[in-house]
Amino acid sequence: AQSVTQLGSHVSVSEGALVLLRCNYSSSVPPYLFWYVQYPNQGLQLLLKYTTGATLVKGINGFEAEFKKSETSFHLTKPSAHMSDAAEYFCAVSGPDMRFGAGTRLTVKP
Amino acid sequence: DVKVTQSSRYLVKRTGEKVFLECVQDMDHENMFWYRQDPGLGLRLIYFSYDVKMKEKGDIPEGYSVSREKKERFSLILESASTNQTSMYLCASSPGLLRYEQYFGPGTRLTVT
């Protein structure tokens, strides 16, 4: 069975600072991994995904994530936070159904 | 762009009422899903459907049923609403499983009083 753990339910950064949101997964088969973002009062939208191939995955809005099999991690990063990045972020692992983490709320301070 | 729409953004119902939440997708996706989202718990799968008239229970199906009579439409039914079903309900669709991402609707915030 697959599962995801997101470390830190709330993360606060200053505008322009590095964003690091942590995700560890458990999977008995090679995982397919996803990061989604949810802005207030909206559904989730895909930021990026890892299926196979390159372990560093680039997504929308300047985000990227690196798949590290040895660490069973798929952390999300962005070099410089923007006020518009404030949202809730969900890591997910797929197969056969999709399992979501509990979410991390990102706050960006001016 | 894939579009997933949900019939209501906000809904207030009384305990014991029968509640219908409807979801429509316009991209001919095989798979559709219903989740509920609660703070600190992330998204929990209620039911999913991989074809018309087919359904599978998710993690928390108790108190819910679903209907998929047409490929583009997936309905969630609360047979007798209870206060513990107050939540955000999210519908999603995908063209396949495993490597495919899901496309989400905007959500329905249901309050049961």
CA-atom Rg of chain B in angstroms: 13 Å
Task: Kindly name the structural category of chain A.
Answer: mainly beta
SS summary, helix count of chain A: 0
Sheet of most strands of chain B: 7 strands, mixed
Order of helices and strands of chain A: EEEEEEEEEEE
- Multimeric state: heterodimer
Number of strands of chain A: 11
Which percent bin holds the helix content of chain B? under 10%
Q: How much of the residues of chain A is beta strand, in percent?
A: over 45%
The low-confidence parts of chain A are none
The total of beta strands of chain B comes to: 11
Give the SSE order of chain B as H and E letters.
EEEEEEEEEEE
* Average pLDDT, all residues of chain B: 94
- What does the overall shape of chain B look like? globular
How many helices of chain B? The count is 0
Mean pLDDT of chain A comes to 93
Set out the fold topology.
The complex is a heterodimer of chains A (110) and B (113).
Chain A: E1 3-7, E2 10-14, E3 19-26, E4 32-38, E5 44-50, E6 56-58, E7 64-68, E8 73-78, E9 87-94, E10 98-100, E11 104-109
Parallel strand pairs in A: 2-11
Antiparallel strand pairs in A: 1-3, 3-8, 4-5, 4-9, 6-7, 7-8, 9-10, 9-11
Chain B: E1 4-6, E2 10-13, E3 19-25, E4 31-38, E5 42-49, E6 56-57, E7 64-70, E8 73-78, E9 87-94, E10 103-104, E11 108-112
Parallel strand pairs in B: 2-11
Antiparallel strand pairs in B: 1-3, 3-8, 4-5, 4-9, 5-6, 7-8, 9-10, 9-11
How would you describe the overall organization of this protein?
The complex is a heterodimer of chains A (110) and B (113). With 110 residues, chain A is an all-beta fold. Helices cover 0% and strands 57% of the residues of chain A. In chain A, a hairpin with a 5-residue loop joins β6 and β7. Chain A is globular and about 40 Å long. The mean pLDDT of chain A is 93. Chain B is globular and about 40 Å long. The relative contact order of chain B is 0.33. Chains A and B meet through β4 and β5 of A and β5 and β10 of B.
